[in-house]
TrEMBL record:
Its EC number is 5.1.3.1. One of its GO terms (biological process) is pentose-phosphate shunt. The lineage of its organism: Eukaryota, Metazoa, Ecdysozoa, Arthropoda, Hexapoda. GO terms for molecular function: D-ribulose-phosphate 3-epimerase activity; metal ion binding. A divalent metal cation binds at residues 36, 38, 70, 175. It catalyses: D-ribulose 5-phosphate = D-xylulose 5-phosphate. Belongs to the ribulose-phosphate 3-epimerase family. Pathway: Carbohydrate degradation; pentose phosphate pathway; D-xylulose 5-phosphate from D-ribulose 5-phosphate (non-oxidative stage): step 1/1. The active site is at 38 (proton acceptor), 175 (proton donor). It comes from the Eukaryota. Its cofactor is Co(2+); Zn(2+); Fe(2+); Mn(2+). This is Ribulose-phosphate 3-epimerase. InterPro entries: Aldolase_TIM, Ribul_P_3_epim, Ribul_P_3_epim-like, RibuloseP-bd_barrel. It comes from Apolygus lucorum. It is an enzyme of class 5 (isomerase).
Length: 224
């Protein structure tokens, strides 16, 4: 496998969801590499966002963008086929919600999507040893999942560092409170897929923020 590349994926969680297409397109026009779509079921997390019908409508409007769904749901297996049908490229689910993570990974891959496994802050990073060979990416949550706009958890960086040291070619994503003030910590720890919500979507100039995030990560990737 080749070395990891920096990719910036804005979260549209705090965008105007009635204007999801325009907001998503605005992020892509500002230089985003992919779209990070937060799917919440009101059960695994206390919030509720949108499901596969909305994602499918978005895919019909935006044909080519790489779309990742971050599945904050209690039964990730239930939504694999609907999300594949909706045109999702990567299905990222929480290991805490799957009774058989390897099986879920396999089903995601068989449905034609890339596999992402996500870890909540209290989950020990070493659990990934059991299924890392099945995953394309590991998402380290840097806030408790469920709501946007939370404070970045610096104490999650050792998890990122451990992953990068042990699995140098894997994609490592960080999500939660990531922006210009925290990107340096993420980059130095070894994260290469950067989810940023309000720091990008609410910025007067999203393109300049995305550029800053990318430059910071690329500098660190060179030294890995």
């Amino acid at each position: 496998m080749s070395s990891p590349k920096c990719r910036i994926g804005p979260s549209v969680l705090n965008a105007d969801l009635a204007d999801l297409h325009q907001e998503s397109q605005r992020m892509l026009d500002s230089g985003a590499d992919y779209l990070h779509l937060d799917v919440m079921d009101g059960h695994f997390v206390p919030n509720l966002t949108f499901g596969h019908p909305v994602v499918k409508c978005l895919r019909n409007k935006i044909k080519d963008a790489f779309m990742e769904t971050h599945m904050m749901v209690s039964n990730p297996d239930q939504w694999i086929e609907p999300m594949a049908d909706a045109g999702v490229d990567q299905y990222t689910f929480h290991v805490e919600s799957s009774p058989d993570v390897r099986s879920t990974c396999r089903k995601v891959r068989e449905a034609g999507m890339k596999v992402g496994v996500a870890l909540k802050p209290k989950t020990d990073v070493s659990v990934v040893k059991d299924y890392i060979d099945q995953a394309d990416m590991v998402l380290i949550m840097t806030v408790e999942p469920g709501f946007g706009g939370q404070k970045f958890m610096t104490d999650m960086m050792p998890k990122v560092r451990w992953l990068r040291e042990n699995y140098p070619t894997i994609d490592i994503e960080v999500d939660g409170g990531v922006g210009p003030s925290t990107i340096q910590q993420c980059a130095q720890a070894g994260a290469n897929m950067i989810v940023s919500g309000t720091a990008v979507s609410k910025a007067p100039n999203p393109a300049s923020v995305i550029k800053e995030l990318r430059e910071t990560v690329n500098k660190s990737l060179v030294s890995l």
